[in-house]
Amino acid sequence: MLKGRNAIITGSTSGIGLGIARGLAEAGVNVMINGFGKPEDIEKERAGLESQFGVKAIYSAADMTKPEEIAGMVADCEAKLGSVDILVNNAGIQLVSPIDEFPIAKFDQIVAINMVSNFHAIRAALPGMKKRNWGRIINVASAHGLVASPYKSAYVAAKHGVVGMTKTVALEVAETHITCNAICPGFVRTPLVEAQIADQARVNNMPEDRVVREIILASQPSKRFVEVEHIAALAVFLASDAALSITGTAVSIDGGWTAR
Ligand code: NAD
Prior knowledge:
7 strands; binds nicotinamide-adenine-dinucleotide
């Protein structure tokens, strides 16, 4: 169904973004991957997507804190793959710190990467989607786009912003065949969460195994981490034609976290 479509997945050199890139490629979508990492690792991933799934895979080194690089990424994808049919805004970082000690530059960086980059990418990709009257915008928000936790002021503010922007974009294009949705995962054991476990251990003065049990998975009633592959499958469904009427929503995939 998605064969021949073209997608950008930001922050796809690791974790959830990499999983979504693989899921879309498996569904026949040509992908532009993005994010930081060792050039040889990124090239291995890119070439692997092509050989494993028989799609085109290209890479953009765009930095999601730089508006002109984000616009350049979209233009590059349109030039090399022909269009951006599916835009997955996934790049994100985190810092756990009390607000009165929160480093100012870090706050700005988290908001820039986790929220403002979505605006720049959507702004650049939407005209092409409108021209073709087909598009899927998927913003990877978080359970923290719906509820808060202490010590995550920048992340929670940014992710709530992403959910708000998702609703606004959906309304602006509601009469077209373009949808815009947010995916709100609970905890997934990616490098981002590994770093958080270490941060929480420091802030709370606790060993890491206790942090996982008593802080991280305490908010997740399933007591399991969410699997990257399950998030990828949700993204593939949201990108499908069958999901046309799903727009402006924040889809939770959080083991029951936000049901409380
Ligand atoms: P990760 O650290 O494994 O991956 C983050 C990706 O973003 C990497 O590819 C990294 O290179 C890229 N990135 C970071 N800064 C960038 C920049 N300035 N420009 C371009 N790319 C940049 O993290 P993850 O856990 O896979 O997180 C992916 C998304 O999922 C984030 O938006 C995160 O907030 C969200 N999320 C994660 C969890 C979780 O538990 N892991 C839960 C909910 C939401």
